[in-house]
Predict the structure.
Amino acid sequence: MPKLLLSTLACVAFAGSSFAANEVVALDIQEIINSEKPCTIQVTVTNPDGSTGTRYGDGGNTSLIGCGEFMDFYMNDLRERGYTFDSETDVVLIWG
């Protein structure tokens, strides 16, 4: 009898745990976008002397929008200093 009781409890506990995994989590997208996280921009460049390399820009802790603005600033700064790159394939925004 005790074995049957323990087996029954184990089955009920196992079945109940499967329902807990189906919990819906509501995310506030504005809260995520506006939260401040580390911002780094990685750019694969052709240096002014013709060699290639990778440059990193540290945007500090900022929102996702702020990180995007820093990326634009950093890419313009690199271009002004003579670096060339394809902004669609050579630039990586790392936020978080």
